[in-house]
Amino acid sequence: MSFSRAPVKRFNENIGCAPAPGTYELKPGEVKGPASFHRSERFKLLKASGAPCIPPPSPSKDVPMSPVRRTMSVDGLVDGSMSKKDKSGLSMQMKQQKLLEKEIRSLVQQRGEQDRRLVTLEEELRKVEAKLLSAVREKTGLAANVTTLERQLAELKKTNEFLKNKVMWCSMVESRVGMLKSMGCFPDTFGLDLE
Question: What's phi and psi for 11, nearest 5 deg?
Answer without folding.
Answer: -70, -25
